[in-house]
């Protein structure tokens, strides 16, 4: 996400509005900060963060219950939000079970697929169409966001 934001800042000619550091991007006008942490390396570092308005978690399908028990009380600012961006993996994944199947009150779920991407190339559309014809179940999982059961994953990974 860090690299993508840097690219977009440059693409739109906004470099003068941002201070880009190794682990954060600061808006010089508003003072807002994007702070980047790797949950998978050291979740304990997150505990000391203060004043977070939005937790934007990429690859959230990999979030574990243990990690969430540390994160949830850290995002304590009044009105704060958690945004989970992910491609569903398994029906047993923590984020899928707790934020899609049985979401907390007030949760907004927005499913976005390839067919809403105005920048998708013709080449990729052909790849997607071939996947639809070749492996309908795999297509549904990869391109339509349908999670697999544990059994589906075991079968798909078998040699």
UniProtKB/TrEMBL annotation:
- Which top-rank group of organisms is this from? Bacteria
Phage terminase large subunit N-terminal domain location, by residue? 2-145
Q: What is this protein called?
A: TerL-like domain protein
Q: Which organism is it from?
A: Shigella flexneri K-227
